[in-house]
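Example 474, ligand protoporphyrin IX containing FE.
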Amino acid sequence: MTILMVALALAAAGLFFRWCEHGRNRRLPPGSMGWPYIGETLKLYTENPNSFFSTRRKRYGKIFKSHILGCPCVMISSPEAAKMVLASKAHLFKPTYPQSKERLIGPAALFFHQGHYHSLLKRLVAASFSPSAIRGSVASVQTIALKLLSSWEHATSPICTLLQMKKYAFEVAMMSVLGGEAEVETEGIRCLYGELEKGYNSMAVDIPGSRFYKAMKVRKALNERLMKIIERRRGKGGGGGLLGNMLRVEAGELTDSQIADNIIGVIFAAHDTTATVLTWLLKYLHDNPNLLQAVAAEQEGIARKLQLEGERGLTWDDTRDMSLTARVIQETLRSASIVSFTFREAVEDVELEGYVIPKGWKVLPLFRSIHHTSDFFPRPHKFDPSRFEVSPRPYTYMPFGNGLHSCPGSEFAKLEMLVLLHHLITTYRWRVVGEEDAIQYGPFPVPKGGLPIHVTHQSRRWEKDSTSFSSISQ
Ligand code: HEM
């Protein structure tokens, strides 16, 4: 017993000594490392991230150290430092993700890589989601939006906005990845993916019964289904969507397993993000009735045009005529800042704004903090889309990241939101049910309970030969 106590005391002293070493003889940024090992993890994940960042920013400045998820880290909230980490010196900061996410998504997904392999995949994904590639997909996105909205009409109780938006974003992501070609495995993939994502925020403990273990089993089953699709598509020259583009790269450049990891990767990147932003859009529009009215006027003008032109569907060009709605989306991305920060790791000791970031330390550009700085966005707590009538200063607005690993799906995500908003706003009204201002974090900030809403259909009565119209609530 005594020996055990002595051993424990020595181990604790060693840990404490190493802890103190961090701060010695180096110009580390100011800040608190919290408790040994736990650091400030609990504070970051239980407090409102706005207050976590703003109290430290006030106390220490735009760059400060902390210790989260078992790693020493430096948090940065100046545009200049963000530029250096994400773009100008990106080669010194490699992307890093929790192990559970890397293993469940698949280690060959592009987020986890740098160099040639990353650029090959980034080129493929960016080409599949560029404006010229996605302009032809408006009709398919619209079909998915209309199917979702019509399913709401029969709801007798409030619906959970987040869950509904997840359905929508998942289906749109599958369509963009597989190219809209019907595959017998699609439904199975949908069910399995729902199980897989439950493991994303678990600890990577691979023992029977653990959440991670269950999710890994699901990941294997998902792989088998993807492999069947990949094999069939290889025999047919690739087909459409991102999958087709990945299958057509030079023989031998991508293995089936790398392709499967990237399919899961893109679904992961496209799904929860877009669904969460759509949920916030409904919340902000609901809370700002005058703005909703102005957005409705913009959308109804377009709906009327479609009707006068023979009840045609939306096109890419129509979505370019939605300038106010587009600014509402921009402001939602700023205000909600659902990707609060990202993770990088210093590959060597790096000098940053007069401080040293030691090799192996994590570096977190704090997007949310920058988006809520009054120097860049006056009265940052006010929801005000008109601020985007002028372009923001470089590196002050990064809802889709920036630099080498910036989001290749940003235009597609915005298109998806514009199409859904068009049909929602011109045909339905919604009312938020219950506790209106609470937020839950899991991992993205989202209105509590996923924003339960009550939806009513409204039919439109157009007054032909006039520019005005009226709507009747049913
Ligand atoms: C509103 C929705 C979305 C938001 C807020 C969002 C945000 C982001 C952010 C902040 C990053 C950079 C992460 C970093 O630097 O570590 C990123 C990367 C990425 N996003 Fe998105 N994203 C959205 C939708 C999409 C969609 C629809 C796709 C589908 C193609 C997509 C695919 C990706 C991919 C593949 C990456 C990794 C890029 C790389 O590592 O080079 N995202 N996204």
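Summary: The mean pLDDT is 90.
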